[in-house]
What does this fold into?
Amino acid sequence: MAKQQEEVYFVFMNFDPVYERLRADRSKEGSATLDAYLSHKHDKLLAKLLQPDSYRKRSSLAIVDGFAVEITEDQASVLRSAKEVRVVEKNQELA
It folds into this structure.
């Protein structure tokens, strides 16, 4: 069976009151706290749902509570079914 190709997907999370509170703090320390919170939250979700070393998170996106990750279509489907996830979209290059 051929291995599925990994592509970049954007994963956007459902409403999170902690994220909203942290995002309201515009200080340098507040920004660092938000970045750390989101990175940990996104890493934890991926570790819970996907096999270790089967994906590569590229970045967490603080402005929208989301992240970019290299995964297969099957893995994208798994993430779509998670209650914490609002939407999963494949990155599309604009010509």
